[in-house]
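Hi R.,

As promised, here are both runs. First protein below:
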Amino acid sequence: MKAMVLNAGPARYAALQALRPLSRRFCYTGPFSSVSLEEVPEPALPSPEWVKIRTVLCGFCGSDLNLILMKDSPTAMPFTSFPCVPGHEICGEIIEAGADARGWKPGDMVCVCPALNCEARGISPPCASCARGLIMNCENFAEGLLAPGMFTGICSDVNGGFAPYLVAHRSQLFRVPDGLSLRSAVLTEPLAVSLQAVLDNMPAADDSVLVIGGGVIGVFVVKAIRALGTRCSITVAEPSPFAAEYSRNSGADAVISGDLISAAVSITGGRAYKPVIGDPVVMGGFTRIYDTVASSATLRASMRILAAGGTLSVLGIGNSVKLDMTPLWLKRQTIRGCYGYGTVRSGKKARPVFGMALDLLATGKVRAEDMLTHEFDLSDYRRMIDVNLAKTRHRAMKTAVCFE
């Protein structure tokens, strides 16, 4: 079968670090390209607990783009393996089910929760993180029956959704509810990421919220807050007019594109104080911030405009940053890392956040189908990358590979 294959060996990584500043197209065209369309074997079931899926749609994520551009920190490299077939936002049809894939059969339409944690890796008893329901923070991403890989799409043993077929463990499967379009269902995974961040840093009605970045994850933060019934004030910082308009239509009270310090003063009534050297620091400010960019600039600004006792959720997957930690102790802030999703406990019951996200889509509490603005054939993957590198020009929100 034809699949998009990602190679990220040390020599290619080094070459692209030098070439990318000249043109990002070196990363996906030419002799040093990190991705190519190749013939690979159709996958077989690793064990009777797995199923084989015919891919219908696979979303293209910002993390896929970072992988292709070789922009991710090497710190995560022990928990990936190459070559691999990327793509972790997957929905499709089961065409083969192993004898121990309880409750699943050919013809079932499913979304794939991509975590390759202890259960998928055949590790028992589970690690402390998995036992707590933190399946995307597993301690065994480089152990067990599979090659290293935190999730489907960055593991050389389990291909992702940029291929017509893939395999998934029974623990990864969620049934697409009747009546939910696959164009909505394929957005379950990014919604689950944002929903987990909101549940971890849940605003109250009197909170003043700032979301930095009006892309898919930022918009889903807004939609998740509104779907959970919180009527707090939400401001989105987004320079793109197209994404800004979409953020406003998704429930944001205000959208800004300029200086965050000034916005914190005008929107929250905070007071800015200018040090002898450096940017102003705001007393007062936003009580909860969700940073989906996580650059040095946005993190520094976030800490300066976050109120005393406030929480900053870092959803963006940036590289090394340099920060002035003064606001952290001066205003007793909390900085919270956000990655993936797990479970939420209510009494003795635990609900998977991935399933909660799927329910929000199925019940219409989150409307997302219009977010899928562009669909591509797999053979047109370079065009898809071009569009993702110029989303404003193409009025693109979410793109996906479509196999039908």
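And here is the second one, sequence first, then its structure tokens:
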Amino acid sequence: VVDGFYYGNDGQRILLPRLEGSDSLPYDSDKRVHFVIVGMNNMGIALGVQAALSMHFPNFVRDSKLKTRITFIDAEIDNEIEFFKGRYSGYFDLSTYYYNDFSTDDSVAIHPKDKGYPYSDFLDVEFEFVKGRIESDNVRNLLEQWAADDGQRLSIAICFSSQPNALAAALYMPEIVYSKNIPVFVRQEQSDNLLSALKSKLEDNVYCKFSNLYPFGMLVNCYRFNNETQQMAKLVNYAYSIADKLTSFPCELDEAAAEREWQGSKVYQQWSSIYSAMTIGLRFNAVFSKGVADVDDADLTDDIVELLAMV
């Protein structure tokens, strides 16, 4: 988790950069993550949901303006917005989202309806929807503005289902995207050979303009679920199940009992625990600048435990 995700066989692993950057976002950081997804199709939505479930950082605890922003860009985005809002209606009941239509120059913030919830707009992730084509001047200008903004950690994912179209969009990004080495993830469903060839260098010190492009989504290079993460998820699930019985912290967790509890848990409880487990390393890296395995018990002061809990 600390080093990011990778794909490929053991001998040819390609490391994918983390959306929050190599040094993460600690409590005192004034930066925020901005993940731009081009193409609001099934793949794009899956990436956006994954980011929303994972991208939580301690600096939001200090400054509530530092929300992770997930931006979808698509020329036919209107219908997809309605489907997305319907699927996650509970989220949009609580959170403001932003809509930008370049065909009418209409830009608006849409606030949650007042349904009597005591804590509205408290979440640390927000969505933005941009109606426009990636090759249009308006959208390119927007990408340039975001890339030039040092207050955000920008990453871009090109999710077109057509492999040539996705590669073309990645190769014709505004120049600042390449010069600032902003990560661009490019969906290459069949093979990453062409993009990998573009990224290759004759020597390590030779400049490669497209070194910030990273293929993903290849059918021949699937990501495998980490067994260690699954085991951690079972312990998270178990910890919640016995929370009202705990008299001291920390405590030893019974792995056999955790397995029995897991088998009896509902699917939504299992997935909640999986996402919690997946972000433990990310949270530890943001708080300690090192991963779970390198954190000593003495580092876990009451204040640190409270901060990790808030995140």
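A quick note on the second one: The mean pLDDT is 84. Let me know what you think.

Best,
J.
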